[in-house]
Amino acid sequence: MPRHEETTDTQEAASPGGDHDGKDGGMSYLRFGAMIATSMVFMYGVMYLNTFELAHVRWSETRLFMTLLMGSTMAIIMLGFMLGMYKNRRVNMAIVAASLVLFGLGTWLVRSQTTVQETFFMSAMIPHHSIAILTSERSEIEDVRVCELAVEIIEAQRREIAEMEWLIEDIDQNGSAASATQAEQRPVPEFDGSSSRTCP
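The structure assignment produced for this chain is given below.
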């Protein structure tokens, strides 16, 4: 074989655009995966920044499902923008395929809520209600009618958060009230909601 052909073959084998990445290429893909995984962890946490208070931060399966959607979407978009760095076609196709599967799984989970039971439902709803309190308490509202509506929302959300916190504790201690009779034996107390917002 001519010397220049041997050189060309050697260069293609070592090239990051060939079918087989070398050690550095493998490490690049590991860094890519670590970057996506780390971003997903931070995304999940960032979704709680709009809760009204720290005490309202609770585990949320729905937020986890949304994190799967965002992470899988980000993986495909980032890979598309950085194809010049990641040239192993087989690995790239595997990343895209895995991301699509993860996206489909996340969509099905968030739309079906099939894994969300009563305590997980309330645990997710508490920070969701807290968002409504934050926006209703702190938004700049001039219209008196809208202000009164905001106060009603705040009071309702605070009352429902208190109810859910009581229910979570009761279910943890005594189990679910699976019948009307059991529910009557363990009635939910009356809770009051308050608002620091006042209207003219």
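Interim note for the steering committee: Helices lie at 3-14, 23-46, 61-81, 89-112, 118-138, 144-174, 180-185. Residues 3-23 have pLDDT under 50 and may be disordered.
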